Amino acid sequence: MNQYQATLVDEQATIALGSTLANIIKNELNHGVVAYLNGDLGAGKTTLTRGFVQGMGHSGHVKSPTYTLVEPYELTPWQVYHFDLYRLADPEELEYMGIRDYFNETSCSFIEWPERGGGMIPSADFIINLSYCGEHREVEVVAQSALGDKLVNQLKA
Ligand SMILES: Nc1ncnc2c1ncn2[C@@H]1O[C@H](COP(=O)(O)OP(=O)(O)O)[C@@H](O)[C@H]1O
Ligand SMILES: [Mg+2]
User: Fold this and answer.
1) Which of 10, 59, 33 has its CA nearest to residue 122?
2) Residue 82 in contact with residue 7, Cβ under 8 Å?
3) For residue 66, is pLDDT > 90?
4) Whose alpha carbon is nearest atom 26 of ligand 1?
């Protein structure tokens, strides 16, 4: 299993990792990705995604899509989608929102609470596991595809 592991000492470190992931995707992979984010409430999933979205070129606010399920960012040539499936009542809802259209070679999807998507979302290129570690956070980025492998290798480099 190819994975990168680190301690994130504060919120800034979590944001910085999101921004590093954005730089790797833009400069090294040049390809869309699907990322799952796992971790308890408050572990830093949205914070890390905020760093990613901003690293992909968004300069405004990043709000949590808790009630809307997805927040889209058109960051030409990239489409960045921040999903939070915490409040998804039924995976069928994803069918109604045209879930399949969200995933392609230029779209980057970061998905909080992916297990609530049932079988409706594609498999991940990499999984980000966040956990509490005293005042800090621990993070693991685990590769799940050839693309994810490349990304993890870049993180470790
Ligand atoms: N590395 C870190 N160390 C300590 N606190 C952090 C760290 N990263 C984020 N935080 C804080 O933890 C909280 C994470 O909230 P959020 O990102 O919304 O979590 P989640 O989306 O996983 O529920 C925020 O209050 C943020 O400031
Ligand atoms: Mg969140």
Assistant:
1) 33
2) no
3) no
4) 11
CA of 91 to the centre of ligand 2 (A): 19
Give yes or no for residue 85 CB within 6 A of ligand 1: no
Q: Contact 55/25 with Cβ under 8 angstroms?
A: no
Q: Report pLDDT for 67.
A: 86
Pocket test for ligand 1, best of 12, 14, 15 (most atoms within 8 A of CB): 14
Q: What is the DSSP letter of 147?
A: H
For the CA atoms of 68, 95, 44, 130, what is the dihedral angle to 10 degrees? 170
Is the distance from the beta carbon of residue 109 to the nearest atom of ligand 1 less than 6 Å?
A: no
Q: What one-letter code names the amino acid at 60?
A: G
Per-residue pLDDT tens over the stretch 17-38: 999 999 999 999 999 999 999 9
Residue 98 backbone class (left: φ over 0; alpha: ψ -120 to 50; beta: rest):
left
Which letter does DSSP use for residue 157 in this model?
-
Question: What digits encode the pLDDT tens for the residues 91-134?
Answer: 999 999 999 999 999 999 999 999 999 889 999 999 999 999 99
- 54 Cβ closer than 6 Å to some ligand 1 atom: no
For residues 75 and 58, is the Cβ–Cβ distance under 8 A? yes
